[in-house]
Amino acid sequence: MKHDVHDTSSAATRPRAEDKSASPKSDADKQEMMKKVQAAGTPGQGHKALEHFVGNWKAEVKCWMEPGGAPNLSQATAKASWTMNGRFLQEDFQGEMMGKPFHGRTILGYDNTKQTFNSVWVDDMHTSMFTTEGRGDNGNKVITLEGRSTCPATGRKDIPMKVVLRVISPDKHTFEMFDGSKGENARTMEITYTRQ
After folding, report:
1. Under the phi-then-psi rule, with left for phi > 0, alpha for psi from -120 to 50, and beta for the rest, what region is 115?
2. Which residues make Cβ contacts (< 8 Å) with residue 68, sequence separation at least 6?
3. Burial of 101 by CB count in 10 Å (0-12 exposed, 13-18 middle, 19+ buried)?
4. How far is Cα 135 from Cα 116, in angstroms, rounded to an integer?
5. Residue range 176-196, pLDDT digits in tens
6. Chain centroid to CA 47: how far?
7. What is the pTM of this model?
8. How remote is the C-alpha of 111 from its chain's centroid?
9. Cα–Cα distance list, 70 to 13, 67, 182 (Å)
10. Which residues pair with 57 in a beta bridge?
């Protein structure tokens, strides 16, 4: 079998000398990249907005099975503190659900790169995580987060949910949850936090 000495079939797999992506980054480029990484990883204004939530709280919880119905009322407590050197806020929540003790945990943060607030919720009654992302308004006194959840009772998946955090005063804030599948303002939960 004859081979052509000008065969270029494997040329695509070899880096060419003029291919800049194959050349190493200069020290100046690396230093500039590290500055950007450090800036993105440094807590800033978005994190200052979360400072209000730090502390010990008593909570009044209202849950609605159906929009417009009578809410189920319960009492709870929460403790929120900074973690990861001030990059994330961790809230530990103690209450009751369906007449049983209930523990949940939220990690709330601000992504400097995307310029969005983000949260993850887990608890001791579910195996799913509820993740949300959104933005702040009114000087970050109102933070609106959106995500999708599941309902183990009905088997529904990817339910569009909205969470609204409102700072009412230095010692009070609310947490509201809305089920988007039941309408834009179909509130399913409201928690009023009062500082202890």
Report:
1. left
2. none
3. exposed
4. 5
5. 999 999 988 899 999 999 999
6. 13
7. 0.82
8. 9
9. 68, 9, 16
10. 78, 195
Interval 131-154: pLDDT, tens? 999 999 999 999 999 999 998 888
Among 69, 91, 70, smallest CA distance to 80 is for 91
- Amino acid at the residue 100: K
Q: How far is Cα 105 from Cα 79, in angstroms, rounded to an integer?
A: 10
Pairwise CA distance, residues 55 & 83, whole Å: 13
Kindly state the tokens that stand for 170.
């230095």
Q: Are 161 and 185 in contact (CB under 8 A)?
A: no
**3-state SS string for 49-103:** HHHHHCEEEEEEEEECCCCCCCCEEEEEEEEEEEECCCCEEEEEEEEEECCEEEE
- Written as six digits, the tokens of 65 are 């099975």
Would you state the structure tokens that stand for residue 93, as one six-digit string?
A: 């929540």
DSSP 16: P
- What's the length of the chain? 196
